[in-house]
Amino acid sequence: MSVLIVGSIALDTVKTPVEEHSDLLGGSASYAAAAASFFSPVKLVGVVGDDFPESEFEFWKSRKVDIEGVQRVEGKTFRWSGEYAWDLNTRETRSVALNVFERFKPTLPPSYRKTDFVFLANIAPSLQAHVLDQMERPRFVVADTMDLWIETTRADLDALLRRIDLLILNDSEAREMTKETSLIKAGRRIRGFGPRFVAIKKGEHGALLFGENEFFSCGAYPLEDIHDPTGAGDTFAGGMAGYLAGNVSTVHFTDLRKAMIYGSVLASFCVEAFSLERLRNLSMEEINERYETFKLMSQFELA
Ligand code: AMP
What we know:
By secondary structure, this protein is α/β, with parallel strands linked by helices. Helix content is 37%, strand content 25%. The protein is built from eleven helices and 13 strands. The chain has a nine-stranded mixed β-sheet, sandwiched between helices. Strands 3-2-6-7 form a four-stranded mixed β-sheet. Helix 1 packs parallel to helix 8 (232-247). The longest helix is centred in the last third of the chain and has 18 residues, at 253-270. It starts with a strand and ends in a 5-residue tail after the last helix. Bound molecules: adenosine monophosphate (AMP). Adenosine monophosphate is lined by residues 8, 10, 12, 26-28, 80, 96, 122-123, 148, 230-234.
């Protein structure tokens, strides 16, 4: 089965303490689509301007990403710029130019409306809801969000939470949303807001998964060299959604545990290079190899 992914498509400028690169392919939907495409066909929804490189459309086509839902309009593509501190964890946004994103209203082509799996990557919750309004009963809906929407459009976000199956967010967002310091309490409370499942990402410290009377915790893949952490969260979520769409018809907690490991594996590759560069030349063999290493690393009773 395929997965519909909606979110931002951007040209990013990223500065780390050792390198700076501009006009790189970025955006929540770009990362998520690349990650998901390893497991299932993707239907992409987003908007780009007339400055967007044609070669990126060729990249998506080569990855079997359907781009019929990507609007190409007059004007400049959404641009974001961020700078990382020495820990490569703390990030400051240097600039955001919404450009064509400002008037973006996602409209689904008729061929997208019956897609079973949906990943609503990070965009305004009202736009995420607008996508769901156009769909015919998807089987499983995953959504991501960010501090901006928790702070500025909470009512829209609360309405969306009642319509989704899995919310993926990071630790600081979970605390902000619930005003709980404990992530365990936060995860449980967010389930009370609507989603059946909640995944809380803790960056280099792994992720937590909450279901009804079910809990799972996994570490992050230990990496020696991180070059650019941008998009790791989107890659994690896209990997999870893609794995579910490609391998599962009715989602159970055990499927989500595996999906979370695949998401972590994809995210670990993402941060090894700037932008989507590592995801572009990644193979399924490399993914499976790291998945197996992950399995061995998490085992504590050896025969
Ligand atoms: P992450 O590192 O997972 O937070 O995602 C980084 C990506 O999010 C970058 O490629 C940006 O282009 C994109 N981005 C930054 N701000 C926004 C925003 N307000 N809405 C949607 N996408 C954004």
